[in-house]
Design goal:
By secondary structure, the chain is an alpha+beta fold. It has four helices and four strands, in the order H-H-E-H-E-E-H-E. It is elongated.
Length: 117
């Protein structure tokens, strides 16, 4: 008798979970696609000239500072070339603030240019 009372709600719950409306799933997929399109449309790749880097420790410090910004997808610093390349959402990241963060570390972030590939 006790098993019937436990089994019935479990079966009802399992059945309800399997019969989710297709519209909800399709709407979620459309929303994801739209969000991805917006992200790609706002994506920008920039190269910043940086003076004062002398080792891989410098590269790591700069990359960590850049990656702290919300909207930065990736960053790569190269002390031999004296540059940092970052990919970011141009609606969320202000280049002036990125340069300021680099300067606060003791380096000199000079001009930047948009990288086209």
């Amino acid at each position: 008798m006790k098993i019937k009372f436990l089994l019935i709600p479990i079966l009802l719950f399992a059945f309800a979970c399997q019969n989710t409306p297709k519209e909800t799933t399709e709407q979620a997929e459309e929303t994801t696609e739209t969000t991805e399109e917006v992200i790609v449309a706002n994506a920008q790749k920039v190269e910043i000239n940086i003076k004062g880097m002398t080792c891989t420790g410098c590269e790591n410090a700069i990359q960590n500072a850049i990656n702290e910004f919300e909207g930065v997808y990736s960053s790569k610093a190269d002390f031999e070339k004296g540059i940092a390349i970052l990919e970011f959402d141009s609606t969320k990241v202000d280049m002036a603030n990125v340069k300021l963060a680099i300067n606060d570390l003791g380096y000199v972030a000079a001009e930047h240019s948009i990288v086209t590939e």
